[in-house]
Amino acid sequence: MEQKQFKAESKRLLDLMIHSIYTHKEIFLRELISNASDAIDKLYFRSLTDDSVNMTKSDFAIEIIPDKENRTLTIKDNGIGMTKEELEEHLGTIANSGSLQFKSENQMEDDHQIIGQFGVGFYSAFMVASRVTVKSKAFGAEKAYIWQSEGTDGYTIDECDKDTVGTEITLELLPDEEDKEEGAEKYSDYLDQYRIQSLVKRYSDYIRFPIRMEMTKSRKKEDSDEYEEYTELVTLNSMTPLWKKNKNELTDDDYNNFYKDKFNDYSNPLHHALVHNEGTVTYDALLYIPERAPFNYYSKEYEKGLQLYANGVLIMERCEDLLPDYFSFVKGLVDSEDVSLNISREMLQHDAQMRLIAKSVERTIKNELSRMMKNEREQYEKFYQAFGLQLKYGVYSDYGMHKDMLQDLLLFTSSKDQKLTSLAEYVDRMPEDQTCIYYACGESIARIEALPQTELVKDKGYEILYFTDSVDEFAIRMLMKYKDKEFKSVSANDLNLESEEEKKELEQKETESKDMLETMQKALDGKVAKVKLSGRLKSHPVCLSNEGDLSMEMAKTLNAMPGVDKPVQAQTVLELNPEHPIYQKLKTLDDETLGKYSQLLYNQALLIEGMPIADPVAFSNLICELMEA
């Protein structure tokens, strides 16, 4: 028998293909089953127009035969088979795909899908086998042929006996590796019926033809407590993916049960979406929004990603590239005929079709969340409580690159009714004379409600958004504007809400109190940029405002981050209420006592802001000293 060499590839190419394209050796079974499915698809396609095929769809099947005694695994199909020339062409040239050629030559509709279009899947068998034998008889041919190879040394082709049309691939498995090293392969595991059943369920559950295997089971003997073994031909795959079914056939229970089973969650999802996309890129997607965040969601341990299928065959358990970080909470899958079955993680990063799918999935998620916010507000607010923080991080990250995508999904508690509101709803309610979107930061709603800086804004009838998450102000600063309305902190130094008459009156009082204010500023020794009179305070004697881009809350967040060597400091202004009795008291004090009052009022303002006092003991002693005076 003549030994032939692979046509265009070297030993190095075959080694590279086997060891780099596939991450896990178990993938070989998926590849061979997919090839068998393709062969059946070709004959089924022909049967639609050729009466001589004499087979219906229910006649087609794939059979798996493990033989532990001889350490062989056989995959059989009754598909179209291969002639000697086709064996030579398709198995003698690495990366040559007969399936792709067949699909191109026959303008096949969606119901006749060919999976293996990349052409290297067959050779994955050499990851687990020392020898591969292929017996095949083509439809309409009189002779059958056997192809054999032990890998890179080449292959042989000869005539053989085979009565039925189709292909039979037998793998002689490699010997098990020693257990001395971690990750040693036990190739005999691929002969275990439950291991085979598990691999078929995981990777090939949605192949459109039955995958069958004789399984050994046990049962009680009649009229006896003893058990006996028997064999039964079992169909290992379900054949029809949920996402390929008509939406009208499916109930919420169908979606929910699939989600809980597939993604190991004990709760029903908050929302699901079944998407059929056609056009530049064709795919089906089944997307879920969980009810709650996983315990490790906001940690480095959390792994995002959607399951990726190629025509119902799983090719990646968790494809990170299909989800942006800000939508990483979404679970689900994408199934596309435009994705190569043999695609690897490295290839994904450069695959144009994958980038198109990812962009389309991103838009779909955005649209689903928008509809949820509009039509299922209670459900959306539940979602936002669980994952709103991630959307805010998304607005802030990558220098605000994604802000247009996310800004309409944000919600914040409002001073209007202490309920969650969107930016669009806030702007729609704004009075005509309001020019800015006002916000206030604090550790809690109760703390923000008590802030002195909110008094004037509320007095003017303007609504305030309450920011209680550390990322809120960073995200809003990245937005800068919403519908041409600037964001303005109630603690900003330039609120400019006073009337012209009020401004003139305040300026006059500041001129009269110039010496006192300068003395107070010196007493605070660089702790504040300025001490001035305030037009924003009503009932409180004092408050702190921000001067510059860095607010006190932002500085507090930045300084709390690990690895900060030199703390940042916001430029603050100490504002005094000229209508408060304390102000009149300050005007009567000598410089030394005024300095002490300055320290007291500054620390009081810090406490109101929820900021730490540098020296609590000194603050306590100062209170006692002034009370005794």
In round numbers, the mean pLDDT is 88
Helical proportion, percent range: 25-40%
SS-based class = alpha+beta
Uncertain runs are 95-100, 108-119
Report the portion of residues in β strands.
15-25%
Strand order of the largest sheet: 5-4-3-6-2-1-7-8
Shape: elongated
Rg to the nearest angstrom?
36 Å
How many distinct helices?
Answer: 20
* Main beta sheet: 8 strands, mixed
The beta-strand count equals: 22
Descriptive terms for the model:
629 residues; alpha+beta
Short account of what is shown:
By secondary structure, this protein is of the alpha+beta class.
Structural features, described:
By secondary structure, the protein is α+β, with helices and mostly antiparallel strands. The protein has 20 helices and 22 strands. Strand 3 and strand 4 (144-149) form a beta hairpin. It is elongated.
